[in-house]
């Protein structure tokens, strides 16, 4: 996706530009290292405009997590994996979709709320709560398909919610590995392992004996 510059005529209102600046900068360097001045420069707004919309940097962090949920939620809601008639096929296609959007530099595909959670879970409880709502809210969108796949294939011993959470744990962990090594291939490899795990988990019992 092409990046807008501060001279673009349709760059949006100041609040939106600050949220988009936070999305990009925090994913690149973390929340603690991101200053209000840096956000203002990237968004092309004054510091007065920043504090008009956000009483503090922490408030910006909370709003950024919510904005992330809204924008990524729309992306996933429109994604083609929903078109498959079989619930397991939808789950596997979701994993494929997650793999397909791992592209560009590490900061371009990693998760904003995952990045902020590791920094803010103790120092900024409000940001942690907003990030948790985003992560678990996204996991919840998978639960109906997982439950239907489990029922159809008589898979038991755990809940759909716990499996959805595990899938998010793998994805977030994949992003951490990619950042640690500055290597997107580690993220795609982890997603491939996740798909193999799901295929084994849902394999008909007679095929596993």
TrEMBL record:
DNA-binding region, residue range(s): 35-54
Pfam families: TetR_C_13, TetR_N
Domain HTH tetR-type: 12-72
Keywords in alphabetical order: DNA-binding, Transcription, Transcription regulation
InterPro entries in the record: DNA-bd_HTH_TetR-type_CS, Homeodomain-like_sf, HTH_TetR, Tet_transcr_reg_TetR-rel_C_sf, TetR_C
Keyword Transcription regulation on entry: yes
UniProt-recorded name of the protein: TetR/AcrR family transcriptional regulator
Organism: Paracoccus benzoatiresistens
Lineage: Bacteria, Pseudomonadati, Pseudomonadota, Alphaproteobacteria, Rhodobacterales
């Amino acid at each position: 996706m092409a990046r807008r510059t501060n001279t673009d005529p349709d760059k949006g209102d100041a609040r939106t530009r600050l949220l988009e600046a936070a999305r990009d900068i925090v994913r690149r360097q973390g929340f603690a290292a991101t200053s209000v001045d840096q956000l203002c420069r990237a968004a092309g707004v004054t510091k007065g405009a920043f504090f008009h919309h956000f009483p503090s940097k922490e408030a910006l962090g909370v709003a950024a997590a919510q904005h992330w949920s809204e924008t990524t939620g729309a992306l996933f809601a429109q994604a083609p994996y929903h078109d498959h008639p079989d619930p397991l096929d939808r789950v596997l296609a979701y994993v494929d979709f997650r793999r397909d959007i791992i592209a560009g530099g590490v900061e371009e595909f990693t998760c904003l709320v995952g990045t902020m959670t590791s920094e803010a879970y103790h120092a900024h409880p409000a940001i942690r709560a907003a990030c948790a709502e985003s992560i678990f809210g996204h996991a919840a969108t998978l639960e109906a398909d997982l439950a239907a796949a489990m029922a159809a294939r008589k898979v038991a011993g755990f809940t759909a919610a716990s499996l959805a959470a595990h899938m998010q744990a793998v994805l977030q962990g994949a992003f951490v590995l990619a950042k640690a090594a500055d290597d997107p291939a580690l993220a795609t490899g982890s997603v491939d392992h996740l798909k193999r795990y799901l295929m084994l988990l849902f394999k008909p019992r007679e095929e596993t004996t």
